[in-house]
Amino acid sequence: MENEFLQLEEDIVTMLKTVYDPEIPVNIFDLGLIYKVEVGENGEANITMTLTAPNCPAADFIVEDVKIKVESVRGIKKCHVDITFEPEWNQDMMSEEAKLELGFL
């Protein structure tokens, strides 16, 4: 059972890496926007994430893309997305790949 959840979480992360902020050429996972991925026994995924800015014009688009892609993972029936600004996102949260891609390294 534990391995099943780990595999589901891995599959979800793989899908999250296909979601992009339309203004930034790096996926939201490598940007460090995903704070938590939880999978319930009922096949419901809960994603806690943030945005690069509270007034992000692409917020609705990104959240909808996350829901659609996570719900496409086999074994996931529903995806809930919680947006938080605690802690506030900053560039240190990006992966090395993201920093390299955006010219911060």
TrEMBL record:
Transmembrane segments: none
Domain MIP18 family-like intervals: 9-82
InterPro entries: Fe-S_Maturation_MIP18, FSCA_dom_sf, MIP18-like
Record Pfam families: FeS_assembly_P
SUPFAM superfamilies recorded: Fe-S cluster assembly (FSCA) domain-like
Protein's name in the database: FeS assembly SUF system protein
Species of provenance: Porphyromonas macacae
